[in-house]
Structure formats: C-alpha cells, structure tokens
Amino acid sequence: MFQNFDQTTDFSRSAGRVRQLRAGFGEAGVDGFIVPRADEHQGEYIPPSAARLEWLTGFSGSAGVAVVLAERAVILVDGRYTLQVRSEVDLAVFEPVSSVDTSLADFLKAAAPGRRIGFDPWLHTVSEMRALTDAIEAVGGQLVALQANPIDRIWNERPAPPKARAVVHPERFAGRPAEDKLADLVGRIGEAKADAALLTDPASIAWAFNIRGADVPHTPLMLAFAILRAEGRPTLFVDPDKLDVEIRARLAALCDLASPDDFEAALKREATGRAIGLDPQLGAARLANIVAAAGGRLVDMPDPARLPRAIKNAGEIAGSRAAHRRDGAAVASFLAWLDRQPPGSVTEIGAAERLEALRAEYGERDGHPLKDISFDTIAGSGPNGAIVHYRVNRGSDRPLGEGELFLLDSGAQYEDGTTDVTRTVPIGGPSAEMRMKFTLVLKGMIAIATARFPKGTRGVDLDPLARIALWKAGCDYAHGTGHGVGSYLAVHEGPQSISRRGMAVLEAGMILSNEPGYYREGAFGIRIENLILVEPASPIAGGDLPMHSFETLTFAPIDRRLIEPTLMSREEVDWVDAYHAEVRLSLTPLMSAEDRSWLEAATRPVGIR
C-alpha cells in the first residue's frame, strides 16, 4: 500500500512546543515567529523533515501558516481546511483564522504594530516577503531574518532529510530529450537579460533534466537546485547519495554536478557583478539576499521551465490518454465492486485499499506498473465527505452507511501520466436534496467541459461557468474549480488553474482538473472531477474567431442515480449520454465480464431508469 492510514496528527504536545518556541524569542531578539508550511523549494510537496507546521500545530493540510506571538498564536488556512483545522489543532493554543478573509499581511498589520517578527528566509518567497515587509513596516514593525530556524532547535526527533534514489525518466514518456529542453531554457534567460537563472522548483528540475525521484510523498520529485547559465554548462546541486552510476553518467553529460551544501557559496560567486534571474513567486527570500550581498542584480523572471512544463508535448499527451484509459478501468471496476457490497459492509479505509489494489492490478496487466498514488485518497462517507481534503485514518474511519453519500477523490502515478478523478456515489437510496445538489454540481462540470473560449482566456474568466447553477440556488464551494496537473509529476501544477486566482492564460496542451463541488457540514459532500486538456483553437462555423475547447481525459461513470434530469437542459443530458457512451466504448475491452455488465447498466442514457 502506498497510503498509510495511521493517525499522523497529534496536537497533544502543541502547548509545550509553543512554550519552548516562545522561550527563545528573547535570545533571537524577536516578539514572534512565522511558521509556514514550506521547505526551501517553496513547493506544496514537502518531506517529513520539513513538516514544521504540522509538528508545532498538528495541522496536516497542504497549505497554511501559523504566527506565534508572546500572548497569542493563530493558524491561517483557506476554505479547503475550515473544518479540518478545527479537528487537528488545539483550539486552546491556536486560533484558526480564514486566510481568505484575513491575509497574513493583514494579520501582521493588525496584531504586530511596532513588533519584531522573526522568519526563516528559506521558507518564504521573494514576493511574499516584499508584501509582508511593506505591511509590517507600515505599522512600525520589522521582519527579522533568522540565521537558524528556531523550530529546528527544539524538534529533537526531527526526521533526516530524504535520500531516495533518482531515476532517468525515459524519453518515450518525456516526449523530448533533456538537451533540447535545456537549450530552450537558456534562450529564455537571454530574453530576460540575465546572465544566469536559478531553478528552485524540483518539478522544473525533474522536467528539464528528464529525471524523477522519491523525496516527497506521492510525487516523483528529487529535491535539488540548479543554476542555468546564458553561456556555459548548468550546474545541478544534488545529494550525491541519490545518484547511482547510470544516472550520474546521464546527468554528467548534461551539466556539472555539485552538492547542495555548496549551493550558497556557488550562488555568491555566480552573482558577483552579474544579473541573476529568479522567479519571485517561487524562489526563497534567502536566495535574493545572497545575490544582493554579493553585489549582484536580481532579475524578476518566471521560472523558465514552468510554462513549457505546463504545455504538454505530443508524447506527454499520448501518455496521459493511455494512463487515463487504464486508470478509468480500475475506477470503474471499483465502482462496480462497491455497488455489489451491502450498505455498512465497507469502510472508508477498505474502499481506499480496494481502489489502490485495482490500480496496481490494471497497471501490471497493461505493462505500466502503478508507481504510486498521486495523493492520499480522500474517501469521505457521510459527514466526512464535507471535509474537502479529508484524510481517513484508523481513528476517523467509518462505514459507508445506508442513505449516505460517499465522496472518493483519488489519483495515480504511472510513468506515462498522472491521474486525478473524483466520483460521488449514493449508498442506498439518495434523498431529493442530494439529487438536486449533485445535479447542480454536474451542470457546472458540464459547463466547463463544453466551454469554447478565445485565445488569451484565463482560468478566472471560466470559473463562474462552474458556479452559476449553484449560485442561482444560493450555494457555492470554497475551493478552486480546477488546478493544473503534471506529466508523471505533481498532481497540482501551475501556473494554470480555473479559479478566482487563475490569472494564467490557458494554452493548448495544458492539463487541468474540472471539479466543482458542494459541501454541507455534518451531512455530506459532493464533488465530480475529470481531467481536461486544452485543445488548439479552431474555427466555429459562422463564427468570427477560432476558439479553444477542452478534451475530457478521464473515463469513469458518473452516478446516474444522483442525476435529476428535470434540472438539466437537453444539451446537458446529451453531454452525459455521449460521455457515458465514450466511457463504455473505451473501458469495456479492459474489464471482466461481470464488471462489463455493470458498466453497461451504469452508462445507460440518463432518461432510462
């Protein structure tokens, strides 16, 4: 099993740890300290050795930040974690604050006027520190960069940094040789008028050098840094223990190799009197400080690999289609199996285990072994389904009960593609309210799937399409509609998204999720998710402009028992019927006779009961 169901969060020692942290404020010369969920690479995916926020607070979510002052401690989280945070932290120690309503900058302005607030410059981006500095200095305060993180001083049982072996990502899956990718990136450095650029995002390094690793959970990343030069070979800073003879030889043909321990000194030499490109939204503030101290000039430039990594090439697109067909068969076989189980006989953990086993089985059968799941499966029955990023453990596990909804959000990592799919199913007969809310969510998902949009359209422009049916009913959901997805990389990838913050232009070749939802606290959650591919803009008969569209990559039945056809237009019903016909055609050859019979019934036209 790739998923561990042990309960990892524990806030029982938070009060003592906060006291220890505060005890060091005087020596450090600060009145408070900021604890983000981040590592030196500023990614969403961090190793256990960097899980400082969880160690201090008990909160296990993928985004959040705590601020500990002498008299008060808060934890700021977004709408995905409003319910989760209250169950995972000691509310007598940490006060949850909505980061949607109150940003970290706003909180510091209100709570820390005239104070010195410490931070670890490795754990905050350049852009973030610019905004926080402006905010706190406006009220007479000061941000103090600490040489050592005070959490590390008191975290006696801190795990060792990861040392997983790296592997070459075959060109048949990568779609392009690393030599070509690196040459393109060098061109982008020249366009930015920089002498060199820093790659700090492990996903960009994995993509550019065609390598993969296992340093963080469920995402095939090798933690490393790189310096790319407008002239001369790049240097990759990676722990030598992660490289065997084969990959060392492969990388040596592309770049110079050095230890991460040498990175700061090497950057200081590189920056002396030169222009260094760094993505201010991804690069650590510590790197900007090194460049400035060396007399260099920091050039704000996007991570040169980020956009080309997001725009999938033909090989990556073909791999994603193959991975989704295989993965869809596993998901459909799971749904067929679940339908045969009596209500109350399967638990959330049992469901997650069964689905992972089927993914492994289908992967082996197809000659593409399951490398990992792409994130911890969200298997929420009844009220647990209302917790957007619920992670089942042995303490929270509950049966899938009669009359409840079961929300299952899961994904897989195969060498040819990364998947992410959510289905919501009724256990027994659904209520009229469940059917109504599910159909409103489905209408939003169809609106995105069928959208046509001109060149230059951003995710923020499409996001309302997924919400309008819910809005008309006085409902909404507190997460984005869609995130970018990598190619055997991170299941959450930027810059593309469909959300209120989705400012990146959607370009042909980008893969995103399409996942509106609805959540009623204490009762149920609904989410339907497919992955979609942005297709090249094409003419529309009688139209004036070519328009982009989406290809749906995911193949898995949408539960017809939850669809209320009277709330849908003819076009929406036709879309579901056409989608189900494609699901049936694609998956039937891969499935057993028993499961094929189930699939035939599950994909009948909506109007047939």
Automatic annotation (TrEMBL):
Keyword Manganese part of the UniProt annotation: yes
InterPro entries in UniProt: Creatin/AminoP/Spt16_N, Creatinase/aminopeptidase-like, Creatinase_N, Pept_M24, Pept_M24B, Peptidase_M24_C, X-Pro_aminopeptidase_P
Domain of life: Bacteria
Domain Peptidase M24 C-terminal, first and last residues per copy: 547-606
Residue intervals of the Peptidase M24 domain: 321-535
Residue span, Creatinase N-terminal domain: 17-144
Molecular function via GO: metal ion binding; metalloaminopeptidase activity
Keyword annotations from UniProtKB, A to Z: Aminopeptidase, Hydrolase, Manganese, Metal-binding, Protease
Gene Ontology, cellular component aspect: cytoplasm
SUPFAM superfamilies according to UniProt: Creatinase/aminopeptidase, Creatinase/prolidase N-terminal domain
Keyword Cell cycle: no
PANTHER family named among the record's database cross-references: XAA-PRO AMINOPEPTIDASE 1 (PTHR43763:SF6)
Family of the protein in this entry: Belongs to the peptidase M24B family.
Protein name per Swiss-Prot or TrEMBL: Aminopeptidase P family protein
